[in-house]
Amino acid sequence: MSIPKYHLITYGCQMNKNDSERMETLLQGIGFEPTDQIEQSDLILINTCSVRQTAEDRVYGQVRSFQKFKKQKPELIIGVTGCMAGRDRDGLIRKKLPVVDLYFPISDMTQLPKWIAELRPDLANTGDVQEDYLKINPLRGNLHQAFVSIQTGCNNFCTYCVVPFARGLEKNRPLQDILQEVRQLAQQGCVEITLLGQTVNSYQAPDPEQFSKENPYKQHFAKLLWEVNQIQGIKRLHFTAPHPNHMDDEVIDAMTLPAHLNYIHLPVQSGDNEVLRRMNRRHTVEQYLDIIERLQKKIPGIAIGTDLIVGFCGETKEQFEKTVELFKKVEFDMSYHAQYSTRSGTAACRAFLDDVSREEKRRRWNVLQDLLIKTVFEKNQAYVGKTVSVLVERHQTSRSEDGNMKDYCYGNSREMKLTRFLSEQPRIGDIVEVKIFRADKWLLEGEVI
Ligand code: SF4
């Protein structure tokens, strides 16, 4: 019998990617191997994202295109999981996917081996079914950098967001499990950890007795940062995404510990208090700016990223201008811009009118995009002549300034600036000091010192 094959497609955030790594562990545990060739697959699995309607529409289109494979090979299993299945309380999404055999919220992935064995007993036997999917070790492709989920779900119910519906309320992983995973990764040669959670800094350990006696902090997330800092081999630590409401002084202080990167991604979504109120963000622009000030005071030179939504229900041109103002004040190093789109099931969908036209949303998006490019280009010039510490992630041949193709190492600096330097050797996983001689908007270039 030939080895059964799966084709796994992942959309969305790092959390989804981490969940897909867990599903890979399960699938390879029952003898499946991955394939890029859809026509060779015995199982096609899509891990979906619901953040925007376009992300869901892409899945409908993709599943439709799989019908022809199913016609040729009726025993082919097609599965859909992730946020679309998670938020589909009334089954309306499921109805639009008649060709799908397996349809489940991500937390039910533990049943995957059992379901596959039921559908295709010729391919798999039922394995052990784990109770908690977060206890499944993700199968990681990259040995030097790892994403570690510390919580799932969210209690915040921002009015535009589907996450609390798709992933449920906040659930924190035991500290013991998190630290064990990080220790194991460090032993395998991992040097960089990114802690993942929807509001990662609201982390509350269900087993607080596991914190070390000498841990100096009180707030659980700050305590967790301290614990990870004690693990030998972890040289770079980062987290995403924090919520402004939990960015207290202890968290900021813990970010000065040696492993922490010189970067924070702190979503703000809007620069206008009335819009923030309607978004149910539960913080003001002034509170956000106060956090930025405290961060910059404590960690000089920290690079700052954010998320912004344009065209939220009722957002006037004046209110959008306040977002532009906020952007100019903070001078973000990175910013992800979304044009608001209504998501069924959310409070914004029920309570507000999506009344900003598509053209206006696009215009506002372009304004922010242009501002980002200009700001980042200008800010990056300050790196010229400076030395940054880079974790090498890939080695590839690319075009150099003089137009010739050359071999480069690429990786992020501690400020999360993509940096490259010439190198014949791949050096992947090395942390190297690079003196910058050229800065573009999305790339720093330098030489190893
Ligand atoms: S904090 Fe708000 S935007 Fe972030 S996941 Fe929770 S509800 Fe969604």
Tell me the layout of helices and strands.
Blueprint: E1 5-10, H1 14-29, E2 33-34, E3 43-48, H2 53-72, E4 77-82, H3 83-87, H4 92-95, E5 102-104, H5 112-119, E6 145-149, E7 151-152, H6 163-167, E8 171-172, H7 175-187, E9 192-196, H8 220-229, E10 236-240, H9 249-254, E11 263-265, H10 273-278, H11 285-298, E12 303-310, H12 317-330, E13 334-339, H13 347-351, H14 358-380, E14 387-399, E15 405-413, E16 418-422, E17 431-439, E18 444-448
Parallel strand pairs: 1-2, 1-3, 3-4, 4-5, 6-9, 9-10, 11-12, 12-13, 16-18
Antiparallel strand pairs: 7-8, 14-15, 14-17, 15-16, 17-18
The chain binds iron/sulfur cluster (SF4).
The site of iron/sulfur cluster has 10 residues, from helix 6.
Salient structural properties:
5-stranded parallel beta sheet; alpha/beta; Rossmann fold; OB fold (Dihydrolipoamide Acetyltransferase, E2P); single chain; binds iron/sulfur cluster; 449 residues; pyruvate-formate lyase- activating enzyme; 5-stranded mixed β-barrel
- Give the overall average pLDDT: 95
Alpha-carbon distance between the termini? 54 Å
Main sheet attributes: strand count, strand direction, barrel closure? 5 strands, parallel
Overall CATH class of the largest domain:
Alpha Beta
Outline type: globular
Query: Fraction of residues in helices?
Result: 25-40%
The number of helical elements comes to 14
Question: What is the name of the CATH architecture of the largest domain?
Answer: Alpha-Beta Horseshoe
Q: How many domains? A: 3
Judged by helices, strands and strand pairing, the structural class is: alpha/beta
Uncertain runs with pLDDT below 50, 5 residues or more?
none
State which percent range the strand residues make up.
15-25%
Give Rg in angstroms. Answer: 23 Å
- In CATH, the homologous superfamily of the largest domain goes by the name tm_1862 like domain
CATH fold descriptor of the largest domain: pyruvate-formate lyase- activating enzyme
Say how many strands there are: 18
> What strand order characterises the main sheet?
2-1-3-4-5
Bound molecules: iron/sulfur cluster
